[in-house]
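Hello support,

Our group uses your service weekly, and this is the first time we've seen a run hang past the timeout. The protein is tRNA U34 carboxymethyltransferase. I'm not sure whether the cause is the sequence or the server load. Input pasted verbatim:
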Amino acid sequence: MINFSGFYKEIADSNLQHWLETLPSILGNWQREHKHGSLPKWEKVLNKLHYPAPDSIDFSTSVTIGSGEQLSAGETEKLSNLLGIFKPWRKGPFSIHGIQIDTEWRSDWKWDRVKPHLSPLKNRTVLDVGCGSGYHMWRMFGEGAKCVVGIDPSPLFLCQFEAVKRLAGQQHPVHLLPLGIEELPPLDAFDTVFSMGVLYHRRSPIDHIMQLRDQLRMGGELVLETLVIDGDENAILVPSDRYGKMNNVWFLPSVEALMLWLRKCDFTDVRCVDVDITSLAEQRSTQWMQNESLVDYLDPNDVSLTVEGYPAPKRAIIIATKNQPNLDLI
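Update from on-call engineer: The timeout came from a worker crash unrelated to the input. Re-ran successfully.
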């Protein structure tokens, strides 16, 4: 069974210590009641990941664990087969003892777009909301973050993260908790909060922005990445049914509308630092994710449109600072 006691110990003497009033009970309930049918199988695989400490680790320019020279060909094949049980791998890529996990998303490309605009992460406490398998968390740690906490309710992503963490071979202050943001109390503690690829899945985007705000210390930095459309501050797309075959897409604002929402939620220094149309090279099917991917979500006769006729995915990165609330609006 996946154990969270190490995280409890780490935050016991930190500005997150008041989270211990509720977190062990919430995660205890998750461990007792979670019914995902594959979780026991995945946990058995995790228990088989006993490998020597890697001879090299790189989290600053990639997520690379081991040079690939420590394991025999047979051991490498066995490890690759074990990691294959956690398919589909969506966020990455990872290099583990010479095994190249070519994930659906080139998440390193997104990180390359985000990183130049961040306040330095060195010695910061960071929250990554909707972190997936944790690729970006390792890159945040590689930038010197003191502690990185990711939340994502998917048990598969949790097991993928745990596999990478165990193979990294030592205790790193990087942790994934199988929670949604609605399960977090207002912590007002993180120096930087990331929400990348989450907002459009929320039925109430303003509530999500306020939940993100509640996790930041005063003066902390929000990094928000989401799907957007062209238009002025009043432009918002609400798909009538599916968007890119996804049935859980609710709101796609324009950049101007999104920035207005953030200012309305008492963020200052709100700025758009990047807008990028998702390419077929950045999101695609691979050996490690053999399901449908972006090419299947676009109109085969016009890749500027989704199969439903909406504008193809375009993503913006907005950075903002938590400010004192305007008491006149409360």
